[in-house]
UniProtKB/TrEMBL annotation, chain A:
Top-level taxonomic group: Eukaryota
Low complexity compositional bias, start-end: 144-158
Positions of the UniProt region annotated as Disordered: 83-116, 143-202
Protein name: G-protein alpha subunit (Small G protein superfamily)
SMART domains: G_alpha (SM00275)
Biased composition (Polar residues): 159-179
Residues reported to bind Mg(2+): 489, 658
Pfam families listed in its UniProt record: G-alpha
Native source species: Handroanthus impetiginosus
Record-linked InterPro entries: Gprotein_alpha_su, GproteinA_insert, P-loop_NTPase, XLG_GTP-binding, Znf_FYVE_PHD
Residues binding GTP: 765-768
Keyword line: GTP-binding, Magnesium, Metal-binding, Nucleotide-binding, Transducer, Zinc, Zinc-finger
Automatic annotation (TrEMBL), chain B:
Protein role: Guanine nucleotide-binding proteins (G proteins) are involved as a modulator or transducer in various transmembrane signaling systems. The beta and gamma chains are required for the GTPase activity, for replacement of GDP by GTP, and for G protein-effector interaction.
CDD domains, per the entry: WD40 (cd00200)
Lineage: Eukaryota, Viridiplantae, Streptophyta, Embryophyta, Tracheophyta
Record family assignment: Belongs to the WD repeat G protein beta family.
Domain of life: Eukaryota
Protein's recorded name: G-protein beta subunit
Subunit structure: G proteins are composed of 3 units, alpha, beta and gamma.
GO-annotated biological processes: signal transduction
WD repeats: 42-84, 90-132, 134-175, 228-259
GO CC terms of this entry: plasma membrane
Keyword vocabulary terms for this entry: Repeat, Transducer, WD repeat
UniProt entry tagged with the keyword Repeat: yes
Length: 880, 268
């Protein structure tokens, strides 16, 4: 009957039947009222929730009453037939001294809410509750952990209770339900003990031992195969057979953990097996996958030693201290959570109340000062203000050191010892004969050869630690972006040459093709111009002819016309090239057609007519400035065996023919730093930077793909200073000022939500060209720069003086301010501006270096509080 | 930005901001770092490669869409372009092409969606002009997908709507949009997929929603974004397994999630 009812009832599921013992439940339920609305209030009976009745605390399964100092009423074993809700929780705990108590006040809020607050007795052990098996009728998230007291860690436990509950309930179904509760009043008394833990970010632990599962049985499929290899979860210790391990552990993002254990700290007893997997796993996956999983397991933050559980000289460690401790040259072996004492001067290291177990690096800024009774010695002889133990006393005696009269020794890391208060080194302890033997006999530590005796090395070590951290953290990404022709590619290539990231053969080949193709394009532009010149010339001649009619003029006309005329062969080539340009097939044909055309180009170049056009190249606005550089060497470049030099690459337009994203990794050169950076860090060269150069067109319309660069650290926005009087002509003939285009792109990027928190460095490029240009074309040609009216110096000859900046410099400052104001109006932050000339290596280095400084400054500001802290703690150790 | 399996499952093509489409052969041995060597690069696009798809039942042909306003049919064995759709020809897209989808029942036909807010239908034999241009969207067409029967295709756009077009008549058959307030920002549709039967349309949005639309009734059957354990960030892509039993969504919250009827599994 009960089963039938159960299947009718909503929320009940069949699976519950197989793990609950008996269903002698008296169900009394009514059908929900679905008629018309009632005009009067229905008298309601507030249901009595069984769990609201303050029940007695149930003792832990393994805990005996004598273990508790708390007033605990003996267990009431609740059965599911106590009430219709039949709710009870199961808490499995590994350690008997961990207790959980149910908070009655909290659970009164709603039916089906179980309030848990985790407390613990042992101040070292941070206990957290584990799985809860929930057997409520309506099991829709009816279990929730409540943070009762100031314990913030319990929030970490809000994991998928349902999942784990199901799993656990499947695994253990024949156990009697055991719930441990504790009285409310006791938890408050515990708070003082545990309060000092709260300052640390806690990694939750998941103590869970399923010890009733028989040996040799897989925890998931429950099949027995005693000799089959199994993989063990490093958190809960569950063992899985070959077939189940993937299902139970999933993709193993934190190493070998059950899916439900992910995010939990590992079982300390299994720390030794970190990174060492069974043969089974190796068979199951390929080597690479196993390697990857093991590296996850070792490096994953959750799997690291919880620093707050290691107490050195009575002080729980912080993360930084643990890093210092573990990364010193001579770290403590097999570090496990626990209490240790550490002699900072000599490097002695041992468990609290025990003799030294090891000699580690001295002078580490770890923990508090050592206490006298740290090693629980009773010999009245002190070394570095610690009373030494009997074995140590024997060691001193055997080493021939006079220990009469309970002397106080001062031993440094290199073993030189002296009496306290005496500035006289009595000898070196570790150089004593036979001491190594004695130490071995007394099982005392002997310093390893790698011990660093002096404190300077320790500083270096610390730097190394920092450096390691930085390396992990710092792969700074610089995004270089700008409009067409703004010189981003030049800066990119310049940086590449500057920071010695060579171009590969493929890239060189690509560049070569690109340069050659561009050359043909330049020639094409010149030839196009020739047609125009020829026509103009003819018109002019005709006009002259009309003005001055005479028989001699006809021959003159022919001569004049000849200036721009070619031989028939070249004429043919010219028309063919122009045809190609018009149809837009230049790029499709040119890499292949270079070979047969190179002699023609040479001939063309030598042709008088072509040279005549070339002389008038300044009239051609479509011809880029760099064209001169290549056209001068047209014959050389068009050859098949042409190899582009670094200079050629630098001057070439673009980086790749495809115009896609280009990126390079580099690190700044040390020498270049020293010039304008006083505090050069040692790790400067090791921090790597990535310069990503993106063409504006590859960001798509409306900057659609800008989101892809969300992880960049700084945006270098490049604007060509000469843009102000240049125009971009669209296909439909609409002319737009290039500076306005740059401004628009800048606005778009700056206001993009992806980059709202990013730093921006504006690189105003092509300063050299501005200097040439500004004399001829005033800056006010651009609408945006209308109000540029610099005070013109009365002594223009002195313009080169420092006190009297040139017009170009003023223009640069003016443009910079314009952009800064624009930036501030959008973001309210400061825009960094740098001046550059793409073709000059120094200026590019300076601009990128400035970008680096911004990042560094930002990083330092972020870590300022940490630095302040660490400098304090480091101070006493270095002053010793 | 995009990747695709070949029909035989032996190779993978991917393209992105480097303006190239790279082909990897899954059977080739890995190098020391465990990376697959590149088996071929298809270069020729002058803009980013936004989308690629293998021609059904042919491992040697691939269609890519690019930010240079063109689509290209490639011959992988030679690495050369077989035909270029759009670009210099007037009937092509006038802005970045964002997506292509090849007709499953007639692999000569494919559609492309573009930033010019149109979708175009192409015949691979006629590269010179689009067979048909589908107007209607008011924003970039981010994604196009052929309906399983091959006579219709769906689109997803920045205007927040999905539409279903008929390729034979050129008519708009259905529009899938949620009402939004005036000042509310409309979430863009980033990716769509049809169920095997075509009855359901899955659409991922930039606000993290993932609607399951009833294709015929244009009603929301389910919103995966409101479910427990849904994505935190925008849904950037989604796809159905070949047998139609599971849906995978990718999101900018760095998770991939696999959804199946009656439950879901999370993959990290």
């Amino acid at each position: 009957m009960a089963r039938v009812l159960m299947s009718i009832l909503p929320g009940s599921s069949v699976k519950r039947e197989d793990h609950d013992d008996d269903y002698s439940v008296d169900y009394s339920f009514a059908i929900e009222y679905s008629g018309p609305a009632l005009s009067h209030d229905i008298p309601q009976v507030v249901p009595v929730d069984v769990r609201l009745i303050p029940t007695a605390a149930v003792a832990a399964r393994a805990a005996t009453v004598s273990n508790l100092s708390l007033p605990v009423i003996q267990p009431i074993v609740k059965k599911s037939d106590l009430g219709k809700s039949g709710n009870h929780g199961r808490v499995y705990s590994r350690k008997p001294e961990d207790f959980y108590h149910r908070d009655g006040a909290q659970s009164s809020s709603s039916s089906g809410t179980l309030g848990f607050s985790d407390g613990h007795c042992d101040s070292n052990q941070l206990s957290c509750s584990s799985d809860i098996e929930d057997l409520d009728d309506d099991n829709k998230a009816c279990v929730s952990y409540n943070e009762n007291n100031s314990n913030s860690k319990s929030s970490n436990l809000n994991q998928d209770v349902q999942d784990s509950a199901d799993e656990v309930s499947n695994q253990i179904n024949n156990r009697t339900s055991v719930v441990t509760f504790r009285d409310i009043s006791d938890s408050t008394s515990e708070e003082s003990e545990e309060s000092h833990h709260d300052e640390h970010a806690m990694i939750p632990e998941k103590p869970m031992v399923l010890d009733d599962v028989k040996k040799g049985v897989c925890y998931k499929c429950r099949k027995r195969n005693r000799f089959g290899e199994k993989e063990v979860c490093i958190v809960c210790g569950a063992k899985y057979c070959r077939k189940c391990v993937i299902r139970a552990m999933g993709a193993m993002p934190e190493g070998r953990k059950c899916i439900t254990c992910i995010g939990f700290g590992i079982d300390e007893s299994r720390r030794g097996s970190l990174g060492k997997c069974s043969r089974m796993l190796k068979k199951l996956f390929t080597d690479d996958v196993v390697k990857q999983i093991m590296s996850f397991e070792v490096s994953c933050g959750v799997n690291q030693l919880p620093p707050h559980r290691i107490c050195v000289n009575g002080k729980p460690l912080s993360i930084e201290e643990l890093v210092v401790l573990q990364s010193c040259s001579n770290p403590p072996k097999k570090l496990k959570p626990g209490k240790y004492w550490y002699d900072k001067v000599a490097g002695f290291w041992g468990k609290d109340g025990e003799k030294p177990s090891q000699i580690i690096s001295a002078q580490l800024a770890v923990g508090n000062q050592i206490r006298q009774e740290a090693s629980n010695g009773n010999t009245n002889v002190m070394i570095n203000s610690r009373v030494i133990t009997t074995p140590e006393f024997w060691m001193l005696k055997l080493a021939g050191i006079d220990c009469e009269g309970s002397p106080h020794f001062w031993v440094t890391a290199d073993g030189s010892y002296q009496l306290e208060g005496m500035n006289y080194v009595m000898g070196k302890l570790w150089e004593k004969k036979l001491l190594r033997l004695v130490c071995a006999a007394l099982s005392l530590p002997f310093p390893s050869d790698a011990t660093n005796p002096d404190g300077e090395d320790v500083d270096k070590e610390r730097d190394k630690v920092n450096l390691k951290n930085l390396e992990q953290k710092m792969m700074n990404k610089l995004l270089l972006i700008g409009c067409d022709q703004s010189g981003t590619s030049t800066i990119y290539k310049q940086a590449r040459i500057l920071y010695k990231v060579p171009f590969s053969e493929d890239e060189k080949q690509d560049l070569k093709i690109m340069i050659q193709r561009n050359l043909y394009r330049y020639i094409g532009i010149l030839l196009e111009a020739r047609e125009r010149f020829k026509e103009d010339h003819a018109i002019e001649l005709r006009r002259r002819y009309i003005n001055e009619p005479g028989p001699s003029d006809i021959s003159n006309l022919v001569d004049e016309n000849n200036i721009y005329s070619f031989s028939p062969r070249l004429e043919h080539f010219s028309s063919w090239l122009l045809q190609l340009m018009i149809s837009g097939n230049l790029e499709a044909i040119f890499p292949a057609a270079t070979r047969e055309n190179s002699p023609l180009v040479e001939e063309l170049w030598k042709d008088k007519g072509f040279q005549a056009i070339y002389k008038r190249r300044n009239e051609l606005h479509t011809l880029p400035k760099v064209a001169n550089y290549f056209l001068d060497r047209a014959a050389e470049i068009s050859r098949v065996d042409y190899e582009p030099s670094e200079m050629d690459i630098l001057y070439a337009e673009g980086i790749r023919s495809s115009n896609g994203v280009a990126s390079m990794e580099f690190s700044f050169l040390k020498s270049s730093q020293a010039e304008y950076m006083e505090s050069v860090d040692q790790n400067d060269t090791s921090v790597s930077y990535q310069l990503i150069r993106v063409h504006a067109s590859s960001l798509g319309e409306n900057l659609k793909w800008l989101e892809m660069f969300e992880d960049v650290d700084i945006v270098l926005f490049c604007v060509s200073l000469t843009d102000y009087d240049e125009y971009y002509e669209e296909i439909n003939g609409k002319r737009t000022n290039k500076m306005s285009l740059s401004k628009k792109l800048f606005e778009g990027i700056v206001s993009h939500p992806t980059f709202s928190e990013k730093h921006f460095l504006l690189i105003l490029n092509k300063f050299d060209l501005l200097e040439e240009k500004i004399e001829q074309a005033p800056l006010t040609q651009c609408d945006w720069f209308q109000d540029f009216n610099p005070v013109i110096s009365r002594y223009p000859n002195n313009a080169s003086n420092n006190s009297n900046p040139t017009l170009a410099q003023r223009a640069f400052h003016y443009v910079a301010v314009k952009f800064k104001r624009l930036f501030e109006s959008i973001t309210g932050r400061k825009l960094f501006v740098s001046r550059a000339t793409g073709l000059e290596a120094d200026s590019v280095d300076k601009a990128l270096g400035y970008g680096k400084e911004i990042l560094k400054w930002d990083y330092e500001r972020n870590t300022f509080s940490m630095n302040e802290w660490s400098s304090e703690s480091i101070e006493p150790s270095t002053s010793v | 930005m995009t990747c695709a399996f070949s029909p035989s499952g032996q190779s993978v093509a991917c393209g992105g901001l480097d303006s190239m489409c790279s082909i990897f052969n899954l059977n080739s041995p890995t190098d020391r770092d465990g990376n697959l060597p590149l088996s071929r690069t298809l270069s020729g696009h002058k803009g980013y490669v936004s989308s690629c798809q293998y021609v059904p039942d042919e491992d040697t042909h691939l269609i890519t869409a690019s930010g240079d306003q063109t689509c290209v049919l490639w011959d992988i064995t030679t690495g050369l372009r077989t035909s270029v759709f759009g670009g210099e020809f007037q009937s092509g897209h006038t802005a970045d092409v964002l997506s292509v989808s090849i007709n499953g029942s007639n692999s000569r036909m494919f559609v492309s969606g573009s930033c010019d807010s149109t979708a175009r239908l192409w015949d691979t034999r006629v590269a010179s002009r689009a067979v048909r241009t589908f107007h209607g969207h008011e924003g970039d067409v981010n994604t196009v997908k052929f309906f399983p029967d091959g006579n219709r295709f769906g689109t997803g756009s920045d205007d927040g709507t999905c539409r279903l077009f008929d390729i034979r008549t050129g008519h708009l058959l259905q529009e899938y949009s949620q009402p939004h307030g005036d000042n509310e920002e409309v979430p863009h549709v980033t990716s769509i997929a049809f169920s095997i039967s075509g009855r359901l349309l899955f659409a991922g949005y930039t606000n993290g929603d993932c609607y399951v639309w009833d294709t015929l009734l244009a009603q929301v059957v389910l919103n995966l974004g409101t479910l427990q354990n849904s994505h935190n960030g925008r849904i950037s892509c989604l796809g159905l397994s070949a047998d139609g039993s599971a849906l995978c969504t990718g999101s900018s919250d760095t998770n991939l999630k696999i959804w199946a009827f009656g439950g879901h599994r999370r993959v990290i």
